[in-house]
Amino acid sequence: MYRPTVRYEEVYKEYVDNLFNATHLDRNQIIRAALFIAGHTEQFSKIIEPFIKRGMTLPQPLWNETDEDLWLNQKTNIGLDKLKERVQPETQVTRARPRRVQEQPTAAPKMFHSSNQEVSISVSGRQYPLRG
């Protein structure tokens, strides 16, 4: 059984406490329910996507939304091996093959002064005005 220590802001504690008082669920069930459904929501995917490592894809959860026993009970009859058997190979986390990136020669920037006292820099053929 995995037993992480979770640290979060007081606003989350208050929300979990309010859920605890409003339901017949304990705090662990509430946290497990949040993790359980997060893997199946578009909102969770959207907030995680910007933090995905280069060459990695967002993994799919091993469980289905109908596997309620996973979040309701601390000990479950659904084993990790059984869950992994259900997962299609294409949903497994994959690493992209490393690619060699060729360095492009960089041109030295050139500075230009125009007749109306504007200054610009040209790099690789593109001109960028300087504002002072």
TrEMBL record:
Protein name per Swiss-Prot or TrEMBL: Uncharacterized protein
Organism: Halalkalibacter suaedae
Sequence ranges of Polar residues compositional bias: 113-125
Region (Disordered): 88-132
